[in-house]
Amino acid sequence: MSRELKGALFFSDRPPHITGYLVIAGTEYEIGGWKVSEVRADISARKRGERKPEQDDMFGERDGRDAWAGLGPAKQAGIRCGDPVFWRYLQEEHRYRDVTCEQHAADCVRHHCGVASRADLSKPGRVDERRRWHRLDDHFQAWRIAENS
What is the rounded CA–CA span in Å between residue 125 and residue 135? Predict the structure, then answer.
């Protein structure tokens, strides 16, 4: 039995210092952490969507991540598509051309996630499409942190 393992970690001078994701055998995990010293960091992982109050600081829950997750993927995508920083991310990291407005960004998101409408991201049974959205959004958030550090 083959076990697929992939992921990415992103580092910042501002809290949370470490963000990322990990996929192990198809199960997605969020990773968050804090720099303790020049050679040590405390990190934690949890399955995407699970919340443990004792990990709030580690995952930046007090910074509005719960509110963001509560919006659902379709609304999240709508908000991101209106953000010019997200447009730049799509161009620089995903090589989409001429992302200069909300409509162009929406086209990119639909193409990337494999949906006809961003609303499809919130429909039952669209698990793979939602995973693609969450991965895209996680990468965007980490990229934004790295760009601003």
Answer: 17
Among 70, 75, 63, smallest CA distance to 133 is for 75
- Percent of the chain at pLDDT > 70 equals 68
- How many Cβ atoms from other residues are within 10 Å of residue 120's Cβ? 19
H or E, element range at 102: helix 102-113
Q: How many CA atoms lie within 13 A of 103 on its CB side?
A: 0
The C-alpha atoms of residue 30 and residue 48 are separated, in whole angstroms, by: 6
Closest CA to 75 of 127, 121, 139, 39: 121
Per-residue b or e along 19-55, where b marks 16 or more CB atoms closer than 10 Å to that residue's CB: bbbbbeeeebbbbbbbbeeeeeeeebbeebeeeeeeb
Find the helix packing angle between 73-81 and 102-113, rounded to 10°: 140
Q: Would you state the pLDDT for residue 18?
A: 73
Structure pTM? 0.60
Rounded Cα gap, residues 3 and 19, in angstroms:
23
